[in-house]
């Protein structure tokens, strides 16, 4: 059996050093570890979907309050609700952007069939996770923590796969790939936000500055 097949499909009897290492990084053949990562990413997608639903419900309530205040010519109150709505939509966009990016991660993880694919495929995904994790604390601290763990798991798999396959990575290309995934997710999130959330009325603040019509 080739070195790749042994690493991919079967786990050998661990040495003491391996047992110590596995207290930090989950044990198991690389294929099994990838499957567990996919399940954890899918769980975060579900959690972000639930967070998006909650934010959507809040959005509808606050939007109605903006409109009602506006119709009553209560400009100060309308402005307060409009500012709250803007924050809700900001969090909604963060959640949606993260979901779109994580769905791309799941798709890419599912395409890995050879050991040589692992480092090349996974390394930009670590950058994607770091990119979406930054603003996640306001949306879901639990997802933020999980993304940190998932990034560490992927880093461990990349390290092990790289040692076995002896691959040299082009980090400039990897960085571009990460940015491409994040940008594509951002475009989709922007489009869906415009489709799903109505524009605010053209409100005027006390200072005379017009509030944004949409996110």
Q: From the helix content, strand content and strand pairing, which structural class follows?
A: mainly alpha
Helix and strand run = HHHHHHH
The dominant shape is elongated
Q: How far apart are the first and last residues' alpha carbons, in Å?
A: 56 Å
Total beta-strand segments: 0
Q: Largest sheet, if any?
A: none
Features:
mainly alpha; elongated; 215 residues; 75% helix; 0% strand; disordered C terminus; 7 helices; Ferritin
Topology (elements, then pairings):
Layout: H1 3-9, H2 16-22, H3 30-71, H4 75-109, H5 115-133, H6 141-165, H7 171-196
Helix pairs in contact: 3-4, 3-6, 4-5, 4-7, 5-6, 5-7
Structure commentary:
With 215 residues, this protein is mainly α. The protein has helices spanning 3-9, 16-22, 30-71, 75-109, 115-133, 141-165, 171-196. 75% of the residues lie in helices and 0% in strands. Helix 3 (30-71) packs antiparallel against helix 4 (75-109) and helix 3 (30-71) runs antiparallel to helix 6 (141-165). Residues 16-27 and 203-215 have low confidence and may be disordered.
Provide a concise account of the structure shown.
This protein has 215 residues and is an all-alpha fold. It is 75% helix and 0% strand.
């Amino acid at each position: 059996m080739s070195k790749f097949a042994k690493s991919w499909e079967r786990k050998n009897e661990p040495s003491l050093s391996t047992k110590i290492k596995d207290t930090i990084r989950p044990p198991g053949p690389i294929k099994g570890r990838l499957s567990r990562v996919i399940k954890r990413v899918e769980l975060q997608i579900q959690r972000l979907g639930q967070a998006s639903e909650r934010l959507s419900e809040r959005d509808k309530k606050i939007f109605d309050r903006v409109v009602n205040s506006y119709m009553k010519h209560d400009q100060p109150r309308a402005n307060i609700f409009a500012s709250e709505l803007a924050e809700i939509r900001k969090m909604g966009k963060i959640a949606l952007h993260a979901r779109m990016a994580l769905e791309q991660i799941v798709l890419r993880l599912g395409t890995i069939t050879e050991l040589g694919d692992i480092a090349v495929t996974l390394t930009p995904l670590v950058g994607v996770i770091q990119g979406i994790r930054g603003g996640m604390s306001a949306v879901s601290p639990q997802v933020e923590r999980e993304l940190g763990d998932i990034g560490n798991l992927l880093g461990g798999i990349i390290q092990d796969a790289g040692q076995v396959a002896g691959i040299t990575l082009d980090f400039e290309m990897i960085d571009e790939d990460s940015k491409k995934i994040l940008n594509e997710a951002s475009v989709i999130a922007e489009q869906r936000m415009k489709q799903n959330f109505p524009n605010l009325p053209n409100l005027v603040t006390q200072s005379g500055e017009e509030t944004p019509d949409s996110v």
